Amino acid sequence: MAIRKKTTKSPKSPRKNGHIKTDIGLVPEKLRGFGAALQRAMGVKITYASKKKILAEMPAKAFVLNRNARANGGALMAYADCIGAAGALMNLPEGHWTTTLESKTNFFSAGVGPLLKASSKPLHVGRTTIVLETTIRNSGDDRRVAIVTQTQMVIPNRK
User: Is the confidence at residue 33, as pLDDT, over 90?
Assistant: First the structure.
């Protein structure tokens, strides 16, 4: 009787062309672990990710709406921060992490559904900071809802 070694499959997410399937969509390996409780609760899904651009969607569900059935300003800021952070992660050098240093939001129109779409692009990728601009638009009428400019610190891991 032959004894076979018991093999276990790795708990890694399925891969497709260097991307992994996660709760927030099919994302590059560099975004593994991105999508904590806030992004999941808000329903944020990354639809495209590269060093030059992040695209995402968030449903305008009751959780993010104010009493006038419009997206809450704080929810929009949190959404933009999540997407900008993903852009920073895509541009981080190996062995570094990031956190938001500064964020500025301009609101232009009410955020209404069914989806709020975001596009984030880096304006500056430096040795100590990454500056990103995230634009949020309504999916129905394509009106610009907000533009958020944020600065992310680039921090080396401790040894």
Answer: no
